Amino acid sequence: MPSSSRTGSTPDSSDADAIRFGIRLQRLISVGYPEGTKRYTDVEIAASVGVSAQYVANLRNGKSLPRLEKAVRLAAFFRLDSWDYFVKPDDDPVVLAVERRVRALNAQRSGQPPAAAEAAEADTLDVAELWTHLKNNRDVQRIASRATQLTPEGLAAVLGVVDQILGSTTPTPEPSDDS
Q: Is the pTM of this model over 0.85?
C-alpha cells in the first residue's frame, strides 16, 4: 500500500515501489493521459491533487510513495479506475490495460496509424520478459527513473556512453514505446 514514508518496510522493497510508482506516473504525464493532447506540469497535477509541485516531482522521480488518499487522487486526476496502475505488478490486467492505452497515445502522437499500436503490443511479451529480469535490479531502476528527466538529446548522449562502456560495435536497438 502506498505510504509517504519508507519506514517500516524493507528498504529495497519500498525503494522499488517508489521507483515503479514514479516510472508509471511519468509515463502518464509524458503522454498526457488519458487523451494524449496535453502533457501536464507538476504544478497542474499538484493543484488538482492538493499537494506541492515538489511533492509531485519527488513522486515522479521515485523518491517518495504517496499515502493511499493521495494515490487515489492521482488516479482520479488521470481518470484511472483505481490507483492499482501505480502499484500492481507489470503483468496485472489493470497495468496492461493502461499500458495499451499509453502505447496507442504514443502512436497517435507520433502520427502512426492505429495498427502501429497493435504492432507495439505484439512486442510487449519480449519487453515484459526483459522488465521481469530488470525490475529487481535497483541500479537499473535508479538510472531509468533519472533518465525520465532527460531531453531526447540527453537520452541519446547517455545511450552513446553506455554503448561505449559496453564496447558495442552496433548502436543500441530502438525499443518499443512501452520500454
A: no
